[in-house]
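Here comes a specimen:
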Amino acid sequence: MTAERRWIIGLVVALTVSLAGNLLVAGVVASHWFGDRPPPPVSLANPYMVEGLFEDLSPEGRDALRDSLRAARRDLKETFRDLHGARRELRRLMVADPFDRAAFEAATAKMTALGDTVEHRMQQAFTEAVSRMSLEDRQHFKPGRPPRPDRDRDRDRDRDRDREGPPLEGPPPPPRP
C-alpha cells in the first residue's frame, strides 16, 4: 500500500469520525430543542441503570437485586465476549473490498441474536430479583426513569396554561410571551 493511499484512508476515517461526532451533537441539540417526548425505556442490559432505580428499597431488596444481576453478568461473560468479537467482525466486513453482503447480514444477525440473549437473561435476573423482594419493596418500585422535577414542572405548567378555566392549584402561570 502506498503512502498516498494510506493518507487517503486516514482522511476518510477522520472525516467519518468527524461526521459521526457532528451528527451526535446535532441530535443532542435537536432533542433539547424539539423534544418533550418520553425518555427511552430503561434497558435491563445496563445493570447500573437498574440499580439506580431501586434506591427506595430495603437493604434486603437491594441485595436480592444486586445478587441476581451479578449472577446474570457472570452467566453472560462469554456472551459479551462473543458480542465484542461479532462487533469486530462486523467492522472488518464493513471495510472489506469487495463487500460481502451475505457475510455482513450473517454478522448482523449474530449480533442481534447475542443482544437478544443478553436482554433475555437480564430480564430473567430482574424477574428473579423481584420475586425474592418483599411486598413493601415491590410497592416502592417505580418503573421507568427517576422523575425529572424541572421537566415535570414545565409540562404541568404548560398543561394548566392550555386548559380553560382557572389553574388546578398553585399560583397562576406567568403570562405568555
